Fold these 2 entries.
Entry 1:
Amino acid sequence: MSDTSERAEAACHALTIRPESATLADRCGGTRAVTITMFSFNTLRVSLSWPRAAVVGALVFCGADAFQRQFIPPPAQNLFHLKRPKTHRVLRPEPGVFRGVLGESHFTINSRGIRGPEMPPRASAYRILCLGDSVTECLYLDDNETWPALIMQRLNQEEKMPRVWVGNVGQSGYSCFHHLRFLKVSDLIKEVDCVVLMAGSVDFAYGISGDLQTFPKAGPKKSKSWIETFFKEVRGKFRKKKSLMVEDLKGEVYKARRKERMDGVKCNELPDLTGPLKLYRQRLQEIVTLCRQNGVRPILVSSAFVCREGLPPEDESMMWGGQLADGRFLGVQAISKGISSYNKVTAEVAREMKVELVDASPLNGQPDLFYDGSHLNEEGCRRLAGMVADCFLARRNGNRWQPIQPENRS
């Protein structure tokens, strides 16, 4: 990834704590392969001199690597935009760091790599997939406090209505570039009835960084073996500088991110966003078209943000990100203006393509609803979930969840 890509992702939404690859044992299909390898080295240590042991050891690793590539596929090969299936984390965010987030938070992933309960059969539930960045992911909120989960809770309170299932595939640092790719390659789009997409803020972060995020040329992709993954992970553990892009269980990295912004040089002039906004529009249009081609109902949600004129210093100190390609940081008013320009495009696409839109702007500028510049706390998620649930309730058709009026499929 380019330097601008790294700055952009760090400037808005950090990558999640999920492991990018399986552990050594997972990659080998369990502890048996690891035990065999360790036994081999213990034997070699006794019977061979160090030079010979090193040569034989290298051959053992190469042989195991070749065997793994040929016979043991890596688990969960289609993890893009998803999490490792059947995983569970407990996070204990610091109250002083995460305003409005109380107690420990459970982060649970089902067997499909989705945050949420297992997906029921299509005939037994109306299935909704929430797609977005870390504002959708809600990493530091408990499973039952995220806005996608609260939508499910609210809609399932309705009597004489079909059961609703809501899955969360929000991913930190991901923009419409990634959301579009996900919908193109994932089978999930064929298994759900509705996609709720909240987008704009990360697209803005990439836009101000100068990274337009173009797709690489098509071609065969070399898969990493567990050998490569193992040494990459070991190398990463010895890096001196701790990345500001990786979340920790307590959220202490937020202190460093906020300090970086506070100490940085501020700028109130937005870069030219003509190109990034054009790409954002095109990607939104493609996402809507792709959903409709698969018979899926798209709903767009605008980005919410805390920035406003006259924001108190103590609330501004909770913010981070907004970094330009040259390393300077945008001021509060410039960030507000920039994200608003992306929300304007979202609204225009919704109007032109006759897509349902949930306008999250009533949340803007209310620090008590956020724990930083864009991430909603528990109360913020309750408010947003109520707004999205109202969209479903207003458009239901008798005892069915699909819209009253058929959508324009052109």
Entry 2:
Amino acid sequence: MKRINTTIGFLFIYFVVMSVLGYPRERIAPDGADRLVTYLLVCALELVVLILLRWVLIRRYKMRERRRHDMEQYARYDEKPDE
């Protein structure tokens, strides 16, 4: 679980740095488009992707742990005492 949080933390730091660097200096583009709205939508979408990624990674980790636990239980049942 620590590895998942570390990975998501690094991705969030990367997101913050890229957001600061990509902040639009001029709000209105020469063609009349509002750059701030696009910027905020991209930031919101990236945050949603980070949240979904964390959810998927945690779910995958729990499934892996459950499968490993089940395999350990089945291994105990398969062992036959020496006669």
